[in-house]
Structures are given as structure tokens and as C-alpha cells.
Amino acid sequence: MDKRKCLLLGDYTHPRFHPLQGVDQQISEILNDLLTVQCSENKKLMRIEHLASYDLCIAYNELWNETVSPQQTAGLLSYVSGGGGLIVLHTGASLTKRNELAQLIGGRFNGHTAYEPLNFKVLEHDITEGVEDFQLDEEPYHFEFDPFTERTILLQYESEGQWIPAAWCHSYGLGRVVFLMPGHHEPSFRHPALRKLILQAATWAARIPVTN
């Protein structure tokens, strides 16, 4: 049987902070038993005619200074609402500059403080099963949350005595969306907790049956 297909989008040529090099290999290894991962920096692949053949899309896009076109925006919305799975990883939060995609993802990125060791608290869900609380050096992202999305928080990090959402999931139309904040650079993806979260997020978002 052919393996399911995943599209990983990022930036190889002009990344400002988060190159896809190295991250592509880590994610391909993590998902190897589940999905064949195709990696690309071509934003045009977000159009629905390209996305339709994939079971899962992982957005690691570095688009802080660029705009996603209306066709690419519509493609991603159509893909997920029609039943596709989407994982937005770390810098993929740059997609939330577009209002429609902020609503799809469930929150709008509004800055981060300095890279530092963070304590992550894990909340109960199929995606987090078997993952214990962990520590990882990361950029603490902050979000403005969309009141219309019924999201389930998966991870929180501690900052100045508060617990701030660092990962969540929700359904969107017939599809499923997961946001994971950890993933600043290639070493982040070597952490066993993040590897397990990505594997289980892919299983959940792409609706892959779990075999024991």
C-alpha cells in the first residue's frame, strides 16, 4: 500500500531566522513510518489544485515580510475545510498576518520575548498521550486569540507566574488544525517530547488510524 503524503513548506533560500534545512530531515525521520514527506519552499503549492493530493500539510513558512496571495489563502482554507490536515509549526505562525488564516489557525501571532529555557506543561489529549511535562529552550510566542474558535489547549509554558498556550488543536470544517509553538531550529526537533508531539499531531490531523 502506498504511504500517505505530507507536504512540508518552509524557506531554503532566504530564511531570516528559521531555515528549512535540517528541519526537513528531522520531520521526515519523525514521520517516516506514517507519511512520505515532500519538502518545498514554493508557496504556490498552497493553491488547492496542488494541496488536494496531500493528506497533511505542515507549515513552517517564514513569511514575516511577505504576503500570502489570495489564491494561496483560499487554497489553504479550502484544503482544510474540505477535510485536509494542517500542522502549523513555530515560524508558520507568520501565516496569521492574513485575517482569514489567523482564524483558520485559531490565533494571531503578536510577538515573542527572548529565547530562553521554558517549562512546558502537557494537557490531556490524543496528541499528547504519553508525553510528560518537559523543558526546552524556545522563543516564547504570544498570541491574540480568536473568540470564535473552540480550541483545545495541548501545551502551556510558564512566564512570570502565568501559563500561556503553546500548542492547541481544533476542527475547521471537515479538517483538523494543530498549532505547535516549539521548533525554533533543528536541535529543537531532536527533543523526544517534540518528536512524539509531531508524530501524534500528524496522526490526529490526517486521521490516520492508530495501530497498536
TrEMBL record:
Keyword 4Fe-4S listed: no
Molecular function GO terms recorded: hydrolase activity
Keyword Hydrolase: yes
ThuA-like domain boundaries: 33-205
Pfam families for this protein: ThuA
Keyword terms of this UniProt record: Hydrolase
Protein name: Glycosyl hydrolase
Top-level taxonomy: Bacteria, Bacillati, Bacillota, Bacilli, Bacillales
